[in-house]
């Protein structure tokens, strides 16, 4: 399996439409990938909460359409990072916003949707403006060799909540895809947590971060693919980068047989 993690970098001076076109072209160029992964809220700004309301879009909006075209161009499954999704209010109520990930098939059709469960901000920003998701999502991701890989979905701040990853494990996940907009100030936490979540659940974890500085917040970068033994197989630097990693999904079952810790769970 070949994973392409697109650690997109951007600043406040790049218009959303221009960034959307630039990143869609980058995705379209990822020939040979099984799975392409983008960062959290790369189009709308991971920390740009003051503009989320005006930038929000429906799930068939311009970002989703651009990514669907790009998936068809490169012939890979595309995890689109996440978008600020607008859901119209009912009975005259206000619209809802979600931090929503879309996973697209190689033909551009929707494979899975995940609305972020854990909102960051401690009463401000995302935790104030976004509605939390309610579903734990594991999707069967098709690979180029004709096999499918049960894949769990999580987003950024979710990384701090191991109970979600246990639910993904119990849903059959062998791989977890995690887009993020993780700040440089807590890069050490990021490196610790991606290893811990992979190790404790004996899964492959592909975590795609963000580069650059936006909304006065420097990003950590450090996108990584971690094996089920907690070993970092590859890690990006701090700048925009495409991290390409080849990994055998069979290492998950090998790890679980060699060290069957999951069989000893009691709670």
- How many helices does DSSP assign? 7
Largest beta sheet, briefly? Answer: 7 strands, mixed
CATH topology: Nitrilase/N-carbamoyl-D-aminoacid amidohydrolase
Distance between the termini: 33 Å
Tell me the overall shape.
globular
Radius of gyration: 17 Å
- Give the uncertain stretches in residue-range form: none
Secondary-structure element order, as H and E? Answer: EEHEHHEEEEHEEHEHEEEEEEH
Provide mean pLDDT, rounded: 97
- SS-based structural class? alpha/beta
Look at the structure and give the CATH class.
Alpha Beta
Strand content: 25-35%
Residues in helix, %: 25-40%
CATH architecture level-2 label: 4-Layer Sandwich
| Number of beta strands | 16
At the fourth level of CATH, the homologous superfamily is Carbon-nitrogen hydrolase
In total, the number of domains comes to 1
Keywords: Hydrolase
Protein name: Nitrilase-related carbon-nitrogen hydrolase
GO molecular function, one term: hydrolase activity
Pfam families: CN_hydrolase (PF00795)
Descriptive terms for the model:
267 residues; alpha/beta; Nitrilase/N-carbamoyl-D-aminoacid amidohydrolase; 6-stranded mixed beta sheet; 28% strand; C-N_Hydrolase; hydrolase activity
Structure description:
The protein has helices at 16-28, 52-55, 62-74, 126-129, 162-170, 187-201, 250-258; strands spanning 2-7, 9-10, 35-37, 77-79, 83-87, 96-104, 110-115, 138-142, 148-153, 175-179, 204-208, 211-214, 217-218, 224-226, 232-235, 241-246. It has 267 residues and is α/β, with parallel strands linked by helices. The chain has a single domain, classed as 4-Layer Sandwich (Nitrilase/N-carbamoyl-D-aminoacid amidohydrolase), CATH 3.60.110.10. The strands form 3 sheets. Strands 1, 3, 4, 5, 6, 7 and 16 form a 7-stranded mixed β-sheet that branches. The chain has a 6-stranded mixed β-sheet with strand order 8-9-10-11-14-15, covered by helices on one side. Strands 2-12-13 form a 3-stranded mixed β-sheet, with no helix packed on it. Strand 14 and strand 15 form a beta hairpin. Residues 1-249 form the CN hydrolase domain. Belongs to the carbon-nitrogen hydrolase superfamily. NIT1/NIT2 family.
């Amino acid at each position: 399996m070949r994973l392409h993690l697109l650690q997109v970098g951007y600043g406040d001076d790049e218009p959303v439409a221009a960034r959307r076109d630039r990143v869609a072209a980058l995705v379209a160029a990822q020939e040979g990938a099984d799975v392409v992964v983008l960062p959290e809220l790369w189009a709308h700004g991971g920390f740009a909460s003051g503009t989320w309301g005006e930038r929000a879009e429906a799930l068939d909006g311009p970002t989703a359409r651009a990514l669907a075209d790009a998936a068809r161009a490169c012939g890979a499954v595309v995890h689109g990072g996440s978008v600020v999704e607008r859901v119209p209010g009912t009975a005259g109520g206000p619209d809802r916003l979600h931090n929503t990930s879309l996973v697209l098939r190689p033909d551009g059709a929707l494979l899975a949707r995940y609305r972020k469960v854990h909102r960051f901000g401690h009463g401000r920003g995302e935790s104030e403006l976004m509605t939390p998701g309610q579903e734990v999502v594991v999707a069967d991701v098709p690979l180029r060799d004709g096999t499918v890989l049960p894949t769990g979905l999580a987003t950024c701040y979710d990384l701090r909540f191991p109970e979600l990853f246990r639910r993904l494990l119990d849903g059959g996940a062998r791989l977890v895809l995690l887009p993020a907009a993780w700040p440089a100030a807590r890069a050490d936490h990021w490196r610790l947590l991606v290893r811990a979540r992979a190790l404790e659940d004996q899964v492959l974890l592909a975590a795609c971060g963000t580069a650059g500085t936006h909304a006065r917040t420097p990003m950590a970068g450090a996108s990584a693919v971690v094996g089920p033994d907690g070993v970092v197989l590859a890690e990006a630097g701090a700048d925009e980068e495409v991290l390409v990693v080849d990994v055998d999904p069979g290492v998950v079952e090998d790890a679980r047989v060699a060290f069957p810790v999951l069989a000893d769970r009691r709670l």
